[in-house]
## 1
Amino acid sequence: MSVTKRKPRLFEALIPILLLICLLALNVLIFGDSALDGSNQLALLFAAAVAGIIGIRLGYTYDEMQDGIVRSISTALSAILILLLIGALAGTWLLSGIVPAMIYYGLEILNPTIFLFAACFVSAVVSLATGSSWSTVATIGIALLGIGKALGLSEGLIAGAIISGAYFGDKMSPLSDTTNLAPAVAGTDLFTHIRYMMWTTVPSIIISLIIFLVIGLTNDTGGVVANVEEVQQAIAQRFNISGWLFLVPVAVIAMIVGKMPALPALLIGTLLGGVFAFIFQPDVVGLVSGEVNDPLLGGYIALMKSMYTEISIPAGNEVVDELLTTGGMSGMLNTIWLIVCAMVFGGVMESTGMLQRITEGIISWATSTGSLITSTAVTCIFFNLTASDQYLAIVVPGRMFANTYRKRGLCPENLSRTLEDSGTVTSVLVPWNTCGLTQSSVLGVATLVYLPYCFFNLISPLMTIAFAYLNIKLRRFSNQTPEKTDTSVNV
């Protein structure tokens, strides 16, 4: 006997969303930075359960909602595999000295007369290498803040430069979880997303760097950056720093440019990192493995540990010690857990028609391409303000708008770019968001103090909206047929 399904009312569709927002806000209030350790994942599951109860009242069966969950999770499977490989790659790149070399040479450009420009640039380099704005701010960011304050600069201005660079790298690095999450939700691949995102991201960071350069040149920044030299010395004492180490990232970039799929490119980059660890860092390999009698056995142990678990390489400097730590594949499990739970919630909401009901009002207003992309950006910022988590600010709007973009002939990379331009970068500007809470507490600078100087984070959503209204680089399906995606990139 079939049960007649009815369309959800707006207030019914909003109940799970409002419950989720309340639970997430409560988790941030109670658990703070630890909210991502599990409480937010459970909040997603509780909200999904409530959505399921409403779905049953609407006439949907459990099997139908379960099928929706399976379909939702399947869209993220590629991102999950990539995240695991990213954890392994980060480990071998640390073990081989590739990431330390990037940091070492990046610090070379620091000059007191262009400190703000350099702080932003160095933060961008480190974040590109690590794929994490959080670790960048918590390590090199602290050192840069101390240097800048010694030079007499405003701590809000320094923090703004650091965060602008860190979130550029977080947004553009293939090692970043949000950079993998956005295309997975939107329905495109990682490297297409990165290549397409460059059109809005590069102008945004160039404008930001020019602003920091102008501000920096108008300040008297005479002084000695001894802290930077200490960091470089600590890295050089532990690792054999060589320009040859950059052959590995160059090879990975070449594979990306050659449009090799993400999984094999990252796997090759991971294995090359392991090979370079044997060649350039035998002492570090022995330190990580704890095996000194058998180099081959020690090398195997160190390589495996760097890929699957957390490793930490002490360098005798507190800042460097914190930087030279990576979680391997196991360090990605919390993010994967969050993605799965978010996809469960999104699957129930989508299969019961509740997401469609919520977006109908927004989409009815978004009559043009410009207004559609603007409404997407505003929705991402809204979820950063209300849900207090950047992952949800990507996942939920991504699920909400994906079908609309396709129906209007817009390729999914338009959506994934908008999600990153507005969801990823604005999270750190919200005092009660997990990102804003973390960065303000790590740097010791209140969110509202550094917010006016986070030029990259403020410019990015405006840039994507401007591109939309000016009809610049809005890629469409061939012959307006959204059923079949054109995988070529028109740049």
Note: Confidence is low (pLDDT under 50) at residues 221-225, 480-491.
## 2
Amino acid sequence: MTDFGTANDAVAICKAVIIQIVPDVRIMDITHQVTPFSIEEGARFLSGVTPYYPSGTVFLVVVDPGVGTSRKAVIVKSKKGQYFVLPDNGLITPVVERDGIVGAREITNRSWMIGEGISSTFHGRDIFSPAAAHLVAGEDWKLAGPDVPELVHLKTVQATVTDNGISGDVIGLDDPFGSLITDVRGEDFKNLGYELGDKVTVKIAGKPYTMPYVKTFMDVPVGQPLLYVDSRGRVGFAVNERNFSKVYDVDPPVAVIIPRKGK
């Protein structure tokens, strides 16, 4: 997973580096469309996908606005037995909080890198890809380098529940559909007293929107907005067969307020 996009050769080069070391490797793409430089989005995607992969999987993740600086390149092993090769910038935080870790190692072993000259701007090619390949080849992850006793921790923002309702944020878009993803847990929303079919008036970026709380998109007419609990258990806002973000000109991050029923 990267924020490299697919309009250039960067992803193909990283895969070629891996294949040179382990020709029979199976490589699967999560996405290369992480919003450029968005560590928070990359962390959310990584946390969302890892439960569906088995122990022993090696995740290579490059969302690295600090490339070439003093930030560490690391390998993290989770208590689920999964390995993560990535910059130490908080990308791993949600996984660590959920799964726990066995430990972390800084990648300093030059034999686990490519070539003599390590670039200052393409560590995906020069450090992360070859290190991931050495793991896949079965080499001991501790050979990568010294122990990292403490990883950079990404500050996670969570919605706040009060007697009046919930204050949270729109944290992303469910592209390409443009539905809004929030940090409001579905369980917390349901505790506000709403039932399916109820109209809910919410504030998004300070502007009120009234829409029904329904199970799925086709529960409202085409072109109409809805509030729903998405497949990851978070409150979302959508427009049936339309793009909520474009229709209402809303782009994250923005605040969202959901009042308790009757307030």
Note: Residues 10-144 form a domain with the Rossmann fold fold (CATH 3.40.50.10790).
## 3
Amino acid sequence: MRKYFGTDGIRRIANTELTPELVYKVAKAGAYVLAKHSNHTPTILIGRDTRLSGTLIESAMTAGFLSYGANVKLLGVIPTPAVAYLTRKLKADAGVVISASHNTFEFNGIKYFSNKGMKIPDTLEEEIEEVMDSGKIDKLTAINDKIGVSEDCKDLVEEYVYFFRKNFDDNIEKYNKEDFVVAIDTANGATYKVAEKVFKTLGIKYKIINNNPNGVNINENCGSTHLDMLKKYVVENKLSLGVAYDGDGDRCLAVDENGEEIDGDKIMAIIAEYLRKKGKLAKDTIVATVMSNLGLHKYARDNGLELLQTKVGDRYVLEEMLKDGFNLGGEQSGHIILLDYNPTGDGILTSLMLIQAMLEDNQKASEEAKIVKLYPQVLVNAKVNSDKKYDYQKDEEIKTEIEKLEKEFAGNGRVLIRPSGTEPLVRVMIEGEDQEYITEKAKQIAKLIESKLK
């Protein structure tokens, strides 16, 4: 069990749990682990979102890197995928994002990216933890002329804007329409400036909301985790589409012209169809997690595509994509990875692919979204003894109940049992055609698991 890193870097309450002292150690140990095989002075990029605690964490992180002897380029407020892109483009030794993604402002977090612009694997995170707690960290101190220096590089965001111009300018210009207008919800987060720059550069008409961060309003009833405001705004202003990013800009969800949500599964299907028609969907395969809706499975099956499943977490999606050369994967939550462009989820990129598909197909968002019929999904938590949460796999009565229900569904439903990584819970997720029925069944199975695994 890792002590500091979770499924998406380190994420804690800023300044009480994620203290400057802890951040300093994470920086020093991280610089050592990520640069120990290089024979030059390491360069590390740091980007952050709009949280109040961002500059505090950035200062401690910078101090840790400089103390080790690494040089730092400070990117300021910038989306996570921009840090990934720039780390690779500038051939830096590592990149760091200071963000707690979709969480509320009091949280903050640290995500490391390798020199390839990818989130570092679990093994490297474990090595960083080992260095932090081994006493070795005290020896990793630069002296005299080996101390690192930092520089302000906020203008590097223009390289990220140019990346979109280079890849989308010609196509958008060719198919763009006068009456096509997009609402952009930046969640008062990391995309609040750059999204507007990108849309303006590409000539896409837009209206922007939740782009006035004050340090505490990031993700507050807005962005990809709270779509109600965007839904209302799109309908009231008779717009063609609404796109919502999360606090650090690596997710995107959408809203059609009627105010209906287009989730990550539907977005993946729309993009898959677009790429397939152009012969650009690698091995005719989509990589998704076990939480993706049965509707996405059916879309893939009915259209001769392969759908591969991984554990929950975009890092596991990426691992599967890299292993076998796939170029499209993602999660229901809107983390979509388009590997031909960037090796991490990128909200702005995802929204532009969706817009491009709509414009080229000359279809409304609601028509594009019909590609997948989503099945009702119910999630019920069973409270269990923490030491027994994996024992459901050995219990014959639990196994029999699950098998019976899956047989009854006959392909039109499924049961997914998933122990929580952090809490004494077993999550029971059921999909099927009848919401009331699957809710009742999920409660029954959760109750059975609770009684057996106390």
Note: The first helix runs from residue 20 to 35.
## 4
Amino acid sequence: MKGVLFICLLLGSLYGDTVLKIASYNVENLFDLETNGYEYTEYIPNTDANWNTKTYKIKLKNIARVITDINADIIALQEIESMQALKDLRFTLKQNGLYYQYYALADNKNTNIKVALLSKIPFVYSKSLSVSASFSYRDILETKFNIEGKELYIFVNHWKSKSGPESKRIVSAKALLKRIKILGEDKNIILVGDFNSDYQENIKFLRKREHNDTDGKTGINHVLKSTKQTQKAVNTNYEEGNFYNLWYDTEPELRYSYIYKKNKETLDNILISQSLLQRKQIYYMPNTIHSYKAEYLFKKEKIFAWKISKKMPRKHKGEGYSDHLPIVADFRVTPSI
């Protein structure tokens, strides 16, 4: 009873709809100050690379500033090294006045960066979804919520980078789809994170021969079936088993969360199941998808990434945020009757 009351107080009155803000942010290598043997060379603590208490605290403070300004109810995170790093970020956020009581990390595998989730809302469970035994693949974080009696599943992803071919990303996509089919494709499901894939990867992919080892098939478009619904959400027709990429619900020039060689890209995505397009229970609010583009996140028309010198030995400069922009979308929760 206390838990139900808490949720009601947190989300608002039972007699009015509630807006649920969900975000995702690749924070770019949030490593802690412990040495466990999996660090990138420039993140080994207390060496000439200048990764130490001072630079770590600056990184935490900067990332916390972004997350605080967004103030999402639930935020998915990518490139978190450890539970210690997640807890340190959570503590820094609390110092800013933003308290995420609930948190989880896909921590079943000793990869050097992982995915995580911070939430103001309690979840029923959270667990790591294994993509492969190979350390080339990061686990996916599966979290189930029950909000006013309505189930919601969120899967936090960080697929293989473009340093590898598309077949690597298809492995993650297939593992994700396999789990979704077990749950049921009719469920309220949000797929979020850094997919290292454009929302139109199936089109742009044809020009990237070095990545095309799959005869033109892509994980985000073909495995997750996100090619049929390419109009704004208000005009979207029901296509059972297909996921809708929310990037289609904003203007083309605004569709980016990453800039590579002056080219704007959408490595970060939010895809939703068909039930979240229907105006029942929990549903996506049209025209709310966007990347968070605060002025301080840019420097000379580039995203103000965390700065490390290019000259050897590489050293942390103690400035910058992340090479990605956060992405945000709103969902409406209808009251119980």
Note: Confidence is low (pLDDT under 50) at residues 1-9, 11-15.
